[in-house]
Amino acid sequence: MAIVAAAGLATSFTASNAGAADRTAPLPASGFNQPAAVQAQQALTAQTATALGLGSGEQLKVRDVVKDPDGTEYVRYDRTFNGLKVVGGDLIVKRKGESIGQVTYNRGAKSVGVATKPTLSQSAALAKGAQAAQKTAQFKATDTRSKGQLVVFVTPTKPVLAYEVVTTGVKPDQTPSVLHSFIDAKTGAVLDQDDEVKTGTGNSMYSGTVSIGTSGSYTMSDPGRGGNYTTDLNGATSGAGTTFTDADDTWGNGSTSSRQTAGVDAHYGAQLTWDYYKNVHGRNGIFNDGRGARSRVHYGNAYVNAFWDGTQMTYGDGANNARPLTSIDVAGHEMSHGVTEATANLNYSGDAGGLNESTSDIFGTAVEFAANNTSDPGDYLIGEKININGNGSPLRYMDKPSKDGRSVDCWSSSTGGMDPHYSSGPLNHWFYLASEGTGSKVIGGVTHSSTACNGATITAVGRDVAAKVWYRTLSTKLSSGSTYKDAREGAINSAKELYGADSAQCKGIEAAFNGISVPAGAATCGGGTDPEPPTGDNLLKNPGFESGAVDWTGTAGPITNNTGRPARTGTWKLWLGGNGRTATETVGQSVAIPASATSAKLSFWIRIDTAETTASTVYDTAKVQVVNGSTTSTLATYSNLNKNTTYVQKTLDVTQYKGKTVTVRFVGQEDSSLQTSFVIDDTSLTVS
């Protein structure tokens, strides 16, 4: 542990286990080994794919496992189809042992099967991808090169065959770029773009005299934190750089006259960020497997930025090479891009791009507060000390994002079309409202003032609560194509899991999302009942499926909140079929019908759409059954011939089962081709 001088300030600092004393978020169970958990779940992927009813050409690959102390695991999977990578086909399975509970499909992609023969040639796709990359990134032409492969790309409405064209180059401001352009393999249209290099900015080097982890041979390598190490690029824009070494383990002189000083700040920031994630969230490094990461400093010439490129953090020296971007919140921001990549892997476009960028602002800010460094006290300003605007103003304001002239305070349907650094505004605003509430106050010596978009007065639940809720949302609820609406659903459900549905924390998290104008969905605090529950004395539990698969048993996956088909009320429903291949799905609930009943009625709403074109042949069916002991009776059968894209209520007489405990069951069956979707919602079984 070396003592170093950074930025010429003499203040001493001793690191602490921030948040450990009041930890309430679930941490990995004692002895939990994340790499081993990934390996164990990978061995079960074939079994899991069968349980989920995935097609024969679909295979799963485990990317991440989060485990609660009670043994519940959130397993994140990527998919392939007939050997092709499925971009946007990731899913999260909540399971305990072999029992599968809730399944969350990215963009509602329950099935990802497509015809795999392209119309567009690879050479044409490469040309279109390179052209699109040049328009987006404005590469120096001599620096670009492209490669491409066929993939399945999941759009918000359906999966399509596409080419993933990867164009590597350097932007005019020296930022490297590895831009993925997805080109429709039939039409040649550009479906989406995503850059591996995530950029961000922060404070300058003002951390005072600090302690950093180094190795016994006096190299800037930290064996206690997975081998985090820091290198000097010496103006280069590629390569690993040279690891800093020193003769006496006293590093830097607090100014740019020593090349070590920027390395000290970057190394110290990486150390603080590692400790924050481990002590507060139980995460063992960026990838949660104990591995450290490299920080590179002195990138390029007068480069006014910092970035994460998928494996490492890189920092420029700022305007005139005088203000290196290597402070605490910059390190927290960039390393958090890595955590996002290893968990939700949020795209860098659409709503997901704003959520991605804001996540780094949120945790960069949380690390700055946790550091408790008197030379750089925590606040809710991003980049306030680098003076990149030349007038002393910060890059971003979390209390009122629109103060930067480009970000927005409130979510709207147009937010996803903005640059991620500005579409991050609503979530940054949410974090501030949840952490500090509305009104004016002085924080870290800075006056902050915030108002809610809906005009409400919001009471703070505290920064630690907001950060813990958001980390759980990121690591167990969101996927690559998630939206602000998904973020709201995930955060409220995470708050319910952490603190309880009736807790002040849950209600504060919900109120803060109301405060940034994200529309309400199914998730609510205070019990989470159906928005429009069936009337009468309903004997069925969770009748509108809004609690997920709770109280219902059978095939995993059909009870879902994916957006591929609408729910009648809320966002959850029972979606049978929709696979376009041979499949049988069954979901049921046991219910006792009183012997005193004079009548008993089973009611539900059903919506049917189909790709079958026949007007006379039944190919796909949904049956409503009652299982009484060993006897199964079919009360009604619906098929592709009954298509109706609006919900219709059906009522069936089950009086004959009074005095018995029976299972009400819905069974969907599809043949080998062309989908039919039977979507059921708002069930009830009432007696009189």
UniProtKB/TrEMBL annotation:
The keyword Chaperone does not apply. GO terms for biological process: proteolysis. It is found in: Secreted. Residues 58-95 form the FTP domain. Its EC number is 3.4.24.-. It comes from the Bacteria. The active site is at E334, H421 (proton donor). InterPro entries: FTP_domain, Peptidase_M4, Peptidase_M4/M1_CTD_sf, Peptidase_M4_C_domain, Peptidase_M4_domain, Zinc_Metalloprotease_M4. The keyword Zinc applies. One of its GO terms (molecular function) is metal ion binding. Residues 344-518 form the Peptidase M4 C-terminal domain. Keywords: Hydrolase, Metal-binding, Metalloprotease, Protease, Secreted, Signal, Zinc. Its cofactor is Zn(2+). One of its GO terms (cellular component) is extracellular region. Residues 199-341 form the Peptidase M4 domain. Residues 1-20 form the signal peptide. Belongs to the peptidase M4 family. Extracellular zinc metalloprotease. This is Neutral metalloproteinase. The lineage of its organism: Bacteria, Bacillati, Actinomycetota, Actinomycetes, Propionibacteriales.
